[in-house]
Specification:
Endonuclease III; mainly alpha; 2 domains; Endonuclease III, domain 1; Endouclease-III_FeS-bd_BS; 14 helices; Endonuclease Iii, domain 2
Length: 277
């Protein structure tokens, strides 16, 4: 029988667990509990880049390097209208293209990638974005992370998107100690069923943006607290932590963490003594 999705974290024991003491089976079970809790916390998680087809997603993902998705989404409507096909990027006027994408930063390098991408798609793939990892990573501006975004969201091919948030969180959870994205991808892929990879990526990224912040994670308001060996890296006081939770899912996240009742009112804080009893 699978473990239930936790509701109220057990703060009496959370934080005392070390990943090194776990058996492989215990790690797999804990990783999958976290996966299920994330699914409950973020049922509507999705790619936050706006796109209508594989080419648009590919372009938006290239532009998202060192840039927020929000800023990319502000730039792409005009860009997509001006360059609807791969051939349009291949033949773009560089100055015009650079000006359109300037707000995303590193616009000269990104213009090189987009123009090179357009030319490669026209020459090798009839102007269409290919649907295999091997073909995608051979294209200008596309590495494994970008390729997995494209595969998972444009072609429904499961893939793990190892961005900064993803790597940071899976290390905090003790799923791996690896820093290299390819090693992280392999380690997580051995813990989580392949069919879950794309949605897991979205949910981990959502959690990293909303709760498990890099500098000050909202530990005391985190629905994963029971299964997180890094509990205590951020504020554990529920009221303090609750103020750090971001995004439209905030109320549901606080409910899952046991800090809100179903009526939206603040629930009694869960003390270590109460959890142990």
């Amino acid at each position: 029988m699978s473990d239930p999705v936790p509701s109220t974290p057990n703060r009496a024991t959370t934080g005392n667990r070390t990943p090194n003491s776990e058996s492989r089976l215990a790690l797999v079970r804990r990783a999958r509990r976290i996966m299920r809790t994330l699914a409950a916390a973020y049922p509507d998680a999705h790619c936050e880049l706006n796109f209508d087809d594989p080419l648009q997603l590919t372009v938006a993902t290239i532009l998202s390097a060192q840039c927020t998705d929000k800023r990319v989404n502000e730039v792409t409507p005009k860009l997509f209208a001006r360059y609807p096909t791969a051939a349009d990027y291949a033949g773009a006027d560089r100055a015009e293209l650079e000006e359109l994408i300037r707000p995303t930063g590193f616009y000269r390098n990104k213009a090189n990638s987009l123009m090179g991408l357009g030319a490669a798609l026209v020459e090798r793939h009839g102007g269409q974005v290919p649907s295999t990892l091997e073909e995608l990573v051979r294209l200008p501006g596309i590495g494994r992370k970008t390729a997995n975004v494209i595969l998972g969201n444009a072609f429904d091919v499961p893939g793990l998107t190892v961005d900064t948030h993803f790597g940071r969180l899976v290390r905090r959870w003790g799923w791996t100690e690896a820093e290299d994205p390819v090693k992280i991808e392999k380690a997580v892929g051995e813990l989580i069923p392949r069919k879950e990879w794309t949605m897991l990526s979205h949910r981990v990224i959502f959690h990293g943006r909303r709760v498990c912040h890099a500098r000050r994670p909202a530990c005391g308001a985190c629905p994963l607290a029971r299964d997180c060996p890094s509990y205590g890296h951020g504020p554990t006081d529920p009221a303090t932590a609750a103020e750090l939770v971001r995004g439209p899912e905030a109320e549901r996240l606080l409910e899952l963490a046991g800090l809100r009742g179903t009526d939206g009112e603040a629930a009694p804080s869960v003390t270590p003594e109460a959890s142990a009893g």
